[in-house]
Amino acid sequence: MPGAPERVVLDLDLVAVLVRRLVTLRDLLWSWHGRLAAAPRPVGDPAGVVICALARASGWAQAAAEMLTRRVALARSAEAAAGLPAAAPRPRLARFGQDRREAPSGRVVAVTLPADPFHGDRAAARAAGRRLGERLVAAVLRPAPDMTELAALTAELRASALDPDLTDGLVTAVGPGRLAELLHVAEGIAGGDARHRARRPPRSRAPELAALTAALGTALGTVSRTGRLTASWFGRFNVRGQADAAETSLLAPLLAGNRFAPATLRMLGEALFGGTSPAGQAGPDGDPVGSGMLGAADVPAPGGRDGDRHGRRPRPAERSGAGEPRPTVGPVRDVGLFGSVGPGGAGQREAYAVALLRAIADEPTLVASFATAHVPAVVALARALPAPRLLGATRWPSAAITDAWYDLLGRAGGERVRRADPAGAATFVARLAFAVYQEPERPLSPALLARIAAVPHVWREEMYASVTGLLPAADALRDPATGGLVASWPAAGPWATHLPGPVDAARVPAELWAALLRESLASAGTDTGLATVGRLARDAAELAAADEEATWAATRGYRGDGHTAYPASPRDLGALRRSAMLGFFVGAAADAAEELARADLAAVQRRAHAAERAIDQLAAALSAVQPHSGALANLWSIITGVTLATAVSEGKWALRARPTAEALAVIARVRAAVSVAVPGWQDDYVASALAVWRRRADDPLLPVEVTGPDGLRRRFTGDPRADGFVTGPHDDFLDPAGNPRDPAAMSPAQRDAFQRWLASPALVANNDAIPAPRPGAG
Predict the structure, then answer these.
(1) pTM value?
(2) Burial class (CB in 10 A: 0-12, 13-18, 19+), 662
(3) Helical ranges in 490-629 per DSSP H
(4) What pLDDT sits at residue 717?
(5) What is the pLDDT of residue 14?
(6) CA-atom Rg of the chain in angstroms
(7) Is 714 helix (H, G, I), strand (E, B) or coil?
(8) In the chain, which end has fewer C-beta atoms inside a 10 angstrom radius, N or C?
(9) Does 769 score more than 80 pLDDT?
């Protein structure tokens, strides 16, 4: 019987290295064993003692590698299951993160697991899974399932659903076709082969069948992380025995049972919504594969995939997956579902689509890259434009699917995804801003606004860095020849020279950030929009205050003896940057306010026009009535000629949208009253700083002494080499004449050193041509 729970602490990177070295040792020992066994029996070893010792040592290395791999697989499975509904017993998990003091080689996880009943023996766990799978098939696929036996088997499966080896053996024994049959029975779905079609689904679903679905979902999610759920496997996932036909709608109730591997979710998402996979995401046989537990998750034996604990080469029938011959991989049809649930089977594909989108949104390492490919279609949907194939069907997506898409986009730009997938998150934000920038006259739906309104807050440093950067020519998505934005999204993405990271989001042009900020501020018209607007306003104020504090801390005591008069203050560049930040936010806020006011004005005018037409038609209808009596005719003439005419006139006047028009005027006055940086101030400042440097022979630079944030006094001369901005060939941005090179020809290190030098105290303090903020420049 299993013992008490045990606390397992693993350094995942170190264990991966250890497993690889054990595999190398095992292969080396087995190679020596084979050579000695094939050679004539050496003198002094007539009994083959050395040969047997090599075999035992190879078997020990094999068993140790398998034990460690299983232990890590169990810990990873516990990680993936953390925070999900309790379809299986959840182990307690503690994450130590990337703290170098606690994890010098990588991430450390600590998990409390039940004692391993198989003592690290992966083969024994797989054999137990095969037996459980056979018993489950026999219990369910009978004319009248025994619910008592089914409940016991389901409880056994639920207790072991996070064991990657046991569930791998179960799925191997059951196979994709019979697994589809199990799900048809558990979900009460008609259809399948002749035997299955003869079985009528029960009128009411038994709780034992619902529990079976939940347990199978947890188990299949665990198996997905072993790499078994390939395209060829899904090609046999149907009850009719058809080749390359996947009943993916059967997965809808399973996707909530456990976290599926990102590669499996990506493959399913591509099949339903169109291709999103980057190059190089296929397995050795052309199938998209699940993410392995380690680089050597299935520890290969010498000459084969698996070996027993004694180091023997396994026979073909013993190898993992031998019970499922691998067919030729071809296009797999996503048939959705054979059979139906309810009248006509309505809603099955939609339920699967929603469940799949929710599962992808919950996977922080996948959601950003998946969402990036679909941003234009979702934004078009939010603008009530024809959206291309968002569901694999020709009809308009349902409200549930639309909401799932909006939620997915909101997750893709969030803080959690930014930490898990920095490169993918930065690319997604750039793609979202580019899509929002297109057709600004068509407002986004309030539902999408509510989801993406927090994106500028998450990326606030990068957004304002794009506004205050001194070298905007390096922005992504900007045509270097014209300086304007590119007309269409680049096929290879926005990052021309290297993979993106969070800091590269600052390379997104400020115009795109402004469009995204404007839409986020326009969410003030939603239920939660006012809180978002307040948070974005605080971001601008906090960053401006932090910049002012940092500028002051880096230039304390610059006046020196009190007698030196500098042409400018070394803090003037900071003031210019803060002015640009203020102007950027106020401009976006004014644009958002105008957008809301104009939309309201248009709505009021549409309502007024409709009311005017209704009043005119009513008046015309009443005026057409001709009473026969003379006295009544006179009375009618008074009513229609005076009272009705007055009502029509006053009604039309009351429908005029004067308050909204006045609001537009107020917005315009506020925009004009704010002091903002002069447009193009970065180019003007760089030109003025370079002019100061070029004229240093005739107009020498005055040295500036400041006290830095570290409290040390430092003297700046303006010379990039003397001041420490150029430390070697890798960051030397000067040409042979001592002048800065063209920034377009600089390396990233040279550009960074160049920008820091441009903002240095001496160069700023000696510059008497720094652009000054002025009112109304926005």
Answers:
(1) 0.74
(2) exposed
(3) 510-521, 529-554, 572-623
(4) 93
(5) 73
(6) 35
(7) strand
(8) N
(9) yes
